[in-house]
Structure formats: structure tokens, C-alpha cells
Amino acid sequence: MPARLPRLLVGMCASSALVSLLPELARLRAAAASCAVVMTPSAARLMSPALVGSVMNCPVYVEIDEPTGGVPRHRSLSDESDMALVAPATLNTLSSLAGASTGNLLTLTLTNFAGPIGLIPVLNDDMRSKPAVQRVLAQLTADGFVFPPEEAGAARDLSGRVQPGVSRHGLNKLVVQLAARAEEASRDD
To answer: What's the pTM value of the predicted model, to 2 decimals?
Structure first.
């Protein structure tokens, strides 16, 4: 991983994976020039935004509102970040992004975001096997969203079954890829 990451926007969706991902995300935040977190309302009900802000040492946003100066929150978050990572990314959020639905601050911000966006999906094997889910993932890939490689046995579902998932190494590789794309985009500007 690069010694210093560009400005990072972290999206968080409601999943039990949030508990295990939070320490990894905090490690990434420590390497970032700056960071902001956007949680879905469901994620904020699952884990306190105050706790997330304390662990991540950065501001956490949940609601669509107007910041100082009259610039809509989703625009200021988009403008103040170079790369975005949604971890964990639920099927609900993945589907919203694939369909350009802007029903919460996270999807609205990402729809306005010009930089590279990485997604860490939380899908079990049964969900992933559905044709509709395959179409969502294919659309997101075609739209330029970046997914890390999944590894067999890297995750467990709530029942304890081993599932494909993203290892710490896979997360690091994704972040390096996003940082390189963000750096390339800043040179093109």
C-alpha cells in the first residue's frame, strides 16, 4: 500500500461484516490525506455513527442536508475526495448504484463522484448465483466500478458457512489500484 493515500471517501452499508471491516478501514484512514465516512441509514442503526467517527477519526455523515455555504452535502463530499471505497457494500446499495438510484446520501454522493470507486460486496453464494445479481455486478463493472478479487474461504456468513470473500491482502490491492487511478486522474486534470 502507498505510504500516503489520496483523500478518501468511505461508504458503509448495514452488514455484520461492518464489525470486522471497521479496524481495516481505520488502518486505511490513517494512511489517507483526509477522510470522510458516509453511512447508509441502516448502517447507522446497526453501528453508531459516533463510534465509527471515533474509530475512523473523521467526520461521519448519514443524512442529506446542507453544509455551511449552501453547497449540498453530496457535492461537497464528492468534491473533497479523490477516491471512494464502499465496504461493506450490500446488494441494496449495489443495485441502487447500478440503476443510478439516489435514495440516500451514500448513493447520491457516489452518483456525483468523479473519481475511482471500489466496492467490497457482501453477497453469499445463494445471492451471487441469481441472474439478477449477476446483471447488477456486470452493470457496475461496465460502469467502471472496481471490485477486489475474491478468495475462497476468506469469509463466513452468519450461519458460519465458509464463503468467498475479500482478504486483507485483497483489500490492500484494491486500495492501491484506486489510489493509482486517482493519481492518474489528478495528472490528467
So the answer is: 0.91
